[in-house]
Amino acid sequence: MQPVVSAFLAIDRALNRIIAVIAVLALATAACLGLLQVVSRFALKIPLEWTEVTIRIALAWMVFVGAALVFRAGAMIAVDMVRHMVPQRFKRLHDGFITLVTLGFLGLLGYWGYIYANRSATQTLLGLDFISVYWAYISIPIGCLCSAIAVIARFIEHEPVSDEEQELELVQ
After folding, report:
1. With 0-12 CB in 10 A as exposed, 13-18 as middle and 19+ as buried, what is 78?
2. Cβ contact 37:52 at 8 Å
3. What is the per-residue pLDDT across 112-142, written as a single tens digit (0 to 9) for each?
4. Residue ranges of the chain with pLDDT lower than 70?
5. Cβ contact 110:140 at 8 Å
6. DSSP string of the chain, one letter each residue
7. Model-level pTM greater than 0.90?
8. Shortest CA distance to 59 belongs to which of 35, 17, 25?
């Protein structure tokens, strides 16, 4: 079983590098296009219709795919009142339950994102008539799949912290 876990974690690390590049490129694209939009609209008085929709697509890819990095780091917002009330010996069980709930949510979101992307495949983007809406919405199931891999990898590698001082060190 150990070689399978090691291979999975290696895939997760490689995927995280790819996701980081995609998220950074998407953010850089959105920022550059935002600047181009402002310059073209206000300085040149020639508004570009395609920049706004392209920014939205880039931000969708950045958020949905980049969320996997946040899940992997354990930096998603958490309500940990119950976790502090659970005895130390049950913390791993609690983490398992949270992992299953998160995977259920990601599965549901990914499923409906895939359905929505396929239903919108015949529509084109306003201002970019040669690109299908599918390419904007497919970021949802792809991001959910990447996030699910990250959630599982975090559960496999992460040991529950034993006190609040260790918890504070992890988030700093």
Report:
1. exposed
2. yes
3. 999 999 999 899 888 788 888 999 999 999 9
4. 1, 79, 159-172
5. yes
6. -HHHHHHHHHHHHHHHHHHHHHHHHHHHHHHHHHHHHHIIIIISS---THHHHHHHHHHHHHHHHHHHHHHHHT-S----HHHHHS-GGGHHHHHHHHHHHHHHHHHHHHHHHHHHHHHTTT-EETTEEEEETHHHHTHHHHHHHHHHHHHHHHHHHPPPP-SHHHHHHHH-
7. no
8. 25
